[in-house]
Amino acid sequence: MDGIKDILSNNLQAALKRPESDLEINVIGGIMLGMIGYYLQTNDFPSSKEIHQLSDTVNLIFGT
């Protein structure tokens, strides 16, 4: 698990162009695991519309 966390941390830090927090690593890691599970169940990637809907839902839950 630490290896996956290190990979995620490195990629996230490069994408954010700033140090990431443990919260960001854990939450985004959970989302990534959910996406992998979705793909394994459906054998398809979520559509752009589904990704936008997910983003809107997260914003509703946590605020902007």
Can you put this structure into words, describing what you see?
The protein is mainly α. The protein has one domain. It is built from three helices and no strands. The protein is globular and about 30 Å long. The model has no long low-confidence stretch (mean pLDDT 85).
The rounded distance between the terminal residues' Cα atoms is 30 Å
Helix amount: over 70%
User: How many structural domains in the coordinates?
Assistant: 1
Number of strands: 0
Total helices: the number is 3
- Principal-axes geometry comes out as globular
Unreliable spans: none
Biggest sheet layout = none
* Element-level helix/strand string: HHH
List keywords for this structure.
single chain, 64 residues, mainly alpha, globular
Gist of the model:
80% of the residues lie in helices and 0% in strands. It is an all-alpha fold and 64 residues long.
Helices and strands in order:
Blueprint: H1 2-16, H2 22-42, H3 48-62
